[in-house]
Amino acid sequence: MVAFFICALLLTIFGVYIGFIIGRNLGERAVTTADYWKMNAAAIVVTVLLSAVLSGLPLLTGGIIGLLAGCIVGIKMGFGESVGPWRTVDRAFNVNKSHREAAESGTGEARRARLRKGEKEPDLISVADDRPKSEKNAKDAR
What we know:
Shape: elongated
Distance between the termini: 84 Å
Strand content: under 5%
Radius of gyration: 23 Å
Number of strands: 0
Structural class: mainly alpha
Largest sheet: none
Helix content: over 70%
């Protein structure tokens, strides 16, 4: 009986890890908050179907629950914004400051769309020397 619980715990931890990896990859693909909620709903549906199919194997129950938990957290972390109940959690524990700022400023969707298209982020500070050639030579001669 102890071996069963140890194996179930290990499968749960493994499920959380695998679920997080899957969820993070899915979350990075979401652009809008509607996409985010659709991915969460899809994760729940897949978990329900998995548990229905594997209902005869009680050892795998912990792994399936861990898969769902990891997937939901991974989707949030890949999405990069505090949405829904995560906003309250992030504020209460004072974590994920960049996620909270993206949610408050409303710039998250534009950033995700730009990343999805493969465009670079805009430069905040220009370090290029845009002076005319005559000014460069005059300054270098001093």
